[in-house]
Each structure stands twice: as structure tokens, then as C-alpha cells.
Amino acid sequence: MDKKWLAGVDIGGTTIKLAFITFNGDIVDKWEIPTNKNENGNEIPGDIANSIQEKLNEHNQTTNKLSGVGVGAPGPINDDFGSVYVGINIGWKNFPLKERLQDELSLPVFVDNDANVAALGEMWKGAGDGARDMVCVTLGTGVGGGVIANGDILHGVNGAAGEIGHITAVVENGAPCNCGKSGCLETVASATGIVRLAKESLQTTEIPSVLRNEKNLTSKLIFESAAKGDQLAKNIVNKVAFYLGLSIANVANVTNPQKIVVGGGVSKAGDLLLEPVKEQFRHHAFPRVAEGAELTIAKLENDAGVIGAAWLVKNKSGE
Q1: Residues 302, 304, 305, 306: is their CA dihedral positive or negative?
Q2: What CATH number did the domain enclosing 78 receive?
Q3: Does 112 share its domain with 67?
Q4: In Å, how far from its chain's centre is CA 175?
Q5: Which of 16, 20, 90, 286 is most open to solvent, judged by the fewest CB atoms within 10 Å of its CB?
Q6: Are residues 11 and 151 in the same domain?
Q7: Quick one: which of 59, 82, 58, 86 has its CA closest to 69?
Q8: Residue 29's beta-bridge partner residues?
Q9: Can you give the residue range of the structural domain that contains 134?
Q10: Are residues 209 and 152 in the same domain?
């Protein structure tokens, strides 16, 4: 019999990434479509189904070629029904994503949180290297997290496990977070949080810095300036590393992981971020936990989500 493919879908606030992937985890084809947020994202399941169908046609295949569709979606997921509890950036509230996609495609559909799915991708084909106990932190516009224990993603009682971005990192006078709390890790370790820290520092200190002349501050620019020795930028990186290292240590003390994988756009800073994070991690983690854990940068970049989504199908389809 002709080998089947897995379809992986990663729903982001701006684009939706899609891929056909073999059972060995190799990408056959990958592409993306814009995220249609009109009518509170109601058109998204139809857009995904149409795009998959069009791409199958290009490959002269039918839906019979697919074992199923795995989807990484933003926000907590109702595990039983595959509905998205709330996807703030898209407009979803108790959105029946699994049901809608199954109706559109007549294929099995498996849905999980996007950060969980990225963690599964890194475990299967990336920096996790098959580690069955692993923590994944994604640093992008927000901060996501996924915790894998004994090879399975932790979901918790109502689908909100692994929300590492919402650990309270700044206990007093923290900035408000989109989630409704204040001082979340996301407010100080996301790309937007890092820029906010830099703007605060520029306003409250007299430290000379090349950043003072910048109209369009980005986290990338802050890391580049730190690498060139800019003191204010270095102070920001050290502050971010403190909050991130402390938060990761607290997660690791509970889960005792073999690998801690840091991904997302901010992780492109590489060792400039990772080395001070490691230092803070070792300082705050229980010594035995620190001994067992290896901190590393994610390898799959933008492919982690679609590969992890495909793993959902591979793991649950029984083929």
C-alpha cells in the first residue's frame, strides 16, 4: 500500500503554516496561508480545508493519502472535544475547531495548544533528541510553554498546563499582561516585553546607549547592541536572563527534565541569551535537577509546530 502522509497545521495570529509530513517526520511539502480573522476567525477551518485540498490536488492525491490532520492552536484546548477555550489574538471563544475541520475534510483531526505542539515537534525531530522528559519555552510575541513528562504532553485538569509565560516573574509592580494578571514572564521575556524593558531603562537611566537614537526598537536590535558591548543593552539582556532562568528553574524543580529547549524568534540571539540563562538556572534550580537538565536552543524554528502537529496524528492514529 502507498505510504500515507500526516498533515500538520500551525495556526498563528498572522499566518497559518501547513505541511504534509511522512511517518518518519520528513517534510514532503510545506506552505502557508494568511490567518483570516474576519467574523472572529469563523472562516479559518474552511480556509485550512480548502488549502489542504488544493495542495493534495497539486500532488495528484486525494484525502485518502492522509492519515489525519494535527493542529496547533493558540490558547487552552478542551481536550475531550478539541475546542479552543479562548484564542485572544484570533477572536475565538469555545470555538469547535476539531469538529469544524472534521466536517470539512472527513478525516480524523487532533488539536492541541500551539506551544505544546511545538514542544512535541522538538522532542520528535529537533533539539529534544527523543528526550521523554522535557520542557520547551517559546519566546516570540508572547511566551509559550510545553511540558513533556514520560513522553506525553501535560495538559492538566482543563487544558492549561505548561503556561510558562504566565508564571509570575515580577512579584511587585509588574507590567499588566494580556491574560489579566501582572508581572507574568511574558511581560519581560517576550519580544514585546524586552522592548518594553529597554524603553523603561532609556527613560529612567542616564546610561549612554546607541538605542537612544533608535526610533524603531526591536528585541533583535537590543541583542545585537549587547553583543557589541552597549552597557544599557547588556543590562536588559541580563535582566531578561534572570527572569527566564528563575522561571525555568521553578518549572524544572517540579518536572526534573532531561532537556530544556528554548525556541521562538527571541532564541535566535543564541548563546548571548542562553549562557546567562544557564547561569541563572543553575543558581535557582535544585542542584540535582540542574545536574540532570541540558539547556539548548530549539532546532526546528518555524517547522516545530507543523512537525509536532503531525506527531499528534502519528501518535493517536494507531497506524
Answers
A1: positive
A2: 3.30.420.40
A3: yes
A4: 22
A5: 286
A6: no
A7: 82
A8: 20
A9: 129-299
A10: yes
**Are 177 and 246 found together in one domain?**
yes
Spatial CB neighbours of 265, under 8 Å, sequence gap ≥ 6: 139, 140, 191, 219
**Residues in contact with 58: Cβ distance below 8 Å, sequence separation at least 6, in sequence order:** none
User: Is residue 226 within 8 Å of residue 275, measured between CB atoms?
Assistant: no
pLDDT digits (tens, 9 = 90+) for 113-124: 999 999 999 999
CA distance 65 to 180: 44
**Same domain, residue pair 142 and 255:** yes
pLDDT tens sequence across 86-101: 776 787 888 899 999 9
Number of domains the chain contains: 2
* Cα–Cα distance, 45 to 31 (Å, whole number): 16
Give pLDDT tens digits for 44-90: 999 999 999 999 999 999 999 999 999 999 888 886 667 887 776 78
Question: Which three cell numbers, joined as nine digits, stand for 144?
Answer: 509559550
